[in-house]
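FW: tagging you since you asked about this chain on Friday. Here's the raw sequence from the shared folder, copied in full. Didn't touch anything.
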Amino acid sequence: MARFAGIILMTVMMICPAWGGTLRVISLYPGHSDNIVALGGGELLVALSANDDADLLPDLPRVPARSGAERLLALRPDVVVTRSFAVKASPNVYETLRRSGVRVVSIDPPSWDGFPDYLRTLAETVGLDPEEGLARLKSAVTRIQSQAVSVNHPRVFLEATSREIHTCSPDSWAARLIALAGGVNVAGDAVPLREGSAVASWGAERVLRDADSLDVYIIQTGAMNTSTIRDFRAREWSGALSHVRVAEIPERYISRPSLLGLEKGGEMLTRIFRGEE
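HL: got it, structure written out here
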């Protein structure tokens, strides 16, 4: 009964914030934006961060990371969803928003195991029922697992950044998605750059050490890594991996904790592992 009453209250808040219309939400982290859309709340969003993907709600204004409170307040938000890194970087901006009556909610990117709880928190923050999103998550995981049955467990290396050839941490979102899609991460003992980091040290020397047993080399492309397959082929040591399948995957699909990314990234990985891309 209490849970049912809570859902009713969230619905009222979504439709009539302060009894004055539909909830107006600004998302200042791309992962939150992706997941709000996946949860069915795209119509609640009135602005996104400048780092959001250009093809996600392209008609909405983009807000630079260092925007002042005035610029955000001009959009008349009821809720601003962000992450702790941004709040620490601009504490005065978020305090001004709070004093102006805007609800500021800071939610950090979740771990793989913490993703269901994250979806619940995000859904409740913007007045949505989380159950639809959780069902979509379960369906996506089941679908990827079924596709992975036809994958012959290739040995995989993910290049997270080309600088010093960093890879994904063993318990990162990317590493868990690779495993879900049927791949075996050859950098399973990589050490994170710092506690909790999704990026780990590795280096070209260790890539070459495992060259004979490596099947797939994935280049994560995006803000963290601008390298391409062409750039990879130009590296003087790439000839030692001439037998290896090399593929690119956008960062948003392999490293961002997102329902949209999980669905697309899982499909791309299983196709790569089966040699279809």
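FW: The chain has two domains: 8-132, 150-273.
HL: agreed, and The domain at 8-132 is CATH 3.40.50.1980 (Rossmann fold).
FW: great, closing this out.
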